[in-house]
């Protein structure tokens, strides 16, 4: 049974691919957290550190979506590598979620505007 990909690309994908696509969308929603922390960084060294975390999140998102769309054969080609990739993505998500919990207390206004993590694509304001 296939259904439309949740990312909005219009492709028909199966259940397991849908799960991977939703994971990519979840990571995409979490990217707002380290991106916001980057904007608060007091110096270039800390900004560089946050920029690396954002780029890593971009890579996890893009890879999950590429696998879901069938553009990256990692799970079939290298199952051990895919398992390690998923564990590393778990750690990235946990770090972003911990930061989000902190921001919920320390910066309620930003957290409310962000809206929290989601498995749905973000719609641009005014779209």
Short description, anyone?
The chain is mostly helical and 127 residues long.
Termini gap: 31 Å
What order do the SSEs take from the amino end to the carboxyl end, as H and E? Answer: EEHHHHHH
Quick one: overall form? globular
Question: Poorly predicted ranges (pLDDT <50, ≥5 residues)?
Answer: none
Note the total helix count: 6
The number of E-state strands comes to 2
Helical content (DSSP H or I, runs of 4+):
over 70%
The overall average pLDDT, rounded, is 92
Helix/strand-derived class? Answer: mainly alpha
Largest sheet: 2 strands, antiparallel
Strand content: under 5%
Rg is 16 Å
What can you see in these coordinates?
- Strand 1 (3-4) and strand 2 (12-13) form a beta hairpin.
- Helices cover 70% and strands 3% of the residues.
- The relative contact order is 0.16.
- It has one domain.
- It is mainly alpha-helical.
- Helix 2 (32-40) runs antiparallel to helix 3 (44-68), helix 3 (44-68) crosses helix 5 (79-106) and helix 5 packs across helix 6.
- It is built from six helices and two strands, in the order E-E-H-H-H-H-H-H.
- The mean pLDDT is 92.
- The chain has a two-stranded antiparallel ribbon.
- The chain has helices spanning 15-30, 32-40, 44-68, 74-77, 79-106, 108-114, and strands at residues 3-4, 12-13.
Key phrases:
70% helix, mainly alpha, 6 helices, 127 residues, two-stranded antiparallel ribbon
SSE diagram, text form:
Layout: E1 3-4, E2 12-13, H1 15-30, H2 32-40, H3 44-68, H4 74-77, H5 79-106, H6 108-114
Antiparallel strand pairs: 1-2
Helix pairs in contact: 1-3, 2-3, 3-5, 5-6
């Amino acid at each position: 049974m296939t259904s439309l990909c949740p990312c909005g690309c219009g492709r028909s994908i199966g259940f397991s691919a849908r799960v991977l696509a939703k994971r990519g969308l979840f990571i995409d929603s979490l990217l707002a957290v380290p991106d916001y922390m980057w904007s608060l960084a007091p110096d270039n060294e800390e900004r560089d550190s946050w920029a690396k975390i954002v780029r890593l999140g971009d890579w996890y998102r893009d890879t999950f979506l590429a696998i879901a769309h069938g553009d990256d054969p990692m799970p079939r080609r290298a199952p051990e590598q895919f398992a390690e990739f998923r564990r590393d993505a778990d750690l990235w998500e946990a770090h972003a979620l911990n930061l989000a919990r902190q921001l919920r207390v320390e910066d309620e206004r930003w957290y409310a505007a962000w809206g929290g993590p989601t498995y749905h694509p973000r719609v641009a304001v005014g779209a």
